[in-house]
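Lay summary. Proteins are chains of building blocks that fold into shapes, and those shapes determine what they do. In this project we predict the shape from the chain. Here is one chain we studied, written as its sequence of building blocks.
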Amino acid sequence: MRSGPVTMRVRRYLPDGNPLRRGTDRVESVAVLAFLIFAVLSLGAAFAVGAAVYRAGLAEEHSGRWVTATVTRDAPAATWVAVEGTAARLRTGVAWTTADGRTVTGQAPVPSAAKAGSPVRIWLDREGRPGDGPRSRIDTVADGVASGTATAALSLTALLACLALVRRRLDHRRYAAWDAGWLAMNRRRKPKDA
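And here is the predicted shape, written in a compact code that computers can read:
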């Protein structure tokens, strides 16, 4: 029964008590096992990073609040402009009352051609500054997935690079041992013409 290439690869690294297995082969088996363990751990870490970024995004989504403000200056008629491929509203002066009764003024996005004195809803972030609105769920999900994927890719690339360096060093040792063996064998042979 013939073994496939995957089976032969796996058998190459399994401890089998073979007396012909070199020390470098055993070290390589340990290095591959360490790589597999760290790869699984790094995937867990990548998931944790992605989940933490997602939770931070959720917290940011819910960190502000909508309030009713009064427009203090007439808004321009054309308030939508393209900014980096997305639509953004221009800001104009507004005033709103805080929870402790103070009146605060600032710049906030308002509907097109809003007149001074008209009420508008504005989004305040956790510091009480006007913003464009709460963070979107798609941005939160995308950031979580991107950060988890990037963490996994970087950690697996670093682990593969370490494994490649270990294999290269072991191959140099194997080649040196083979060269030394050939030299020793050739020294033992006596020339027939001598």
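What the prediction tells us: DSSP finds three helices and seven strands in the chain.
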